[in-house]
Amino acid sequence: MIRATALVRRADLASGEIVDRIVLDHGDRHRRRMAMRGVGGLAFLLDLAEPAVLDDGDALRLEDGRLVWVEAAPERLLEIRAPSAHALKRLIWHIGNRHVPAEIGEDALWIAHDHVLAAMVEGLGGSATPVERPFRPEAGAYAGGHAHPADHAHGDGPAHGHHHGHHHGHPHG
């Protein structure tokens, strides 16, 4: 079985033949070694030297130099908002106090869908709206490696055009 031995970050992806894509949820984007199958059917072994977070828009380099595109799968989340910046900070503190993975944006917070936390947020004056979108939680202070802030900016480089929230035009079959 062919191996994927290198992770190429989106910012470093200048060229290469993209031969397939993998669509992974948040939990499956934290890997080192795992058998995988692309959407187009390409079977390969992810075999990185150390665990890594595979971010939306990154690619895995196969031993023969070809690339497999990484796409973040939409997940069922809660989008949490508050009437003021201070109120949002309070909600972030309460959610963080429960050690729940969270993606923090400029004026919203996203967590995995949880009816108990939704009720808590609403009880504290915020809103918790169910949404479906890729989940990119904070890596954590002790996670090391690659952090990927929620309000990151991606420049569209020469490799491909890319915008969050829609399908990529990469190979399917």
UniProtKB/TrEMBL annotation:
Q: Where is this region: Disordered?
A: 129-173
Compartmental location: Cytoplasm
- Which Pfam families does UniProt cross-reference here? UreE_C (PF05194), UreE_N (PF02814)
Where along the chain is composition biased (Basic and acidic residues)? 148-159
Q: What is its main location?
A: cytoplasm
Coiled-coil features, chain-numbered ranges: none
Per UniProt, residues of the UreE urease accessory N-terminal domain are 3-68
- InterPro entries from the xrefs? UreE, UreE_C_dom, UreE_N, UreE_N_sf
Work out whether the entry's keyword set contains Chaperone. Answer: yes
Secretion signal: which residues? none
Q: What keywords sit in the KW lines?
A: Chaperone, Cytoplasm, Nickel
* Compositional bias per record (Basic residues), positions renumbered to this chain: 160-173
Q: Which family does it belong to?
A: Belongs to the UreE family.
What job does this protein perform? Involved in urease metallocenter assembly. Binds nickel. Probably functions as a nickel donor during metallocenter assembly.
Q: What is this protein called?
A: Urease accessory protein UreE
Which organism does this sequence originate in?
Methylobacterium crusticola
Q: State the gene name recorded for this protein.
A: ureE1
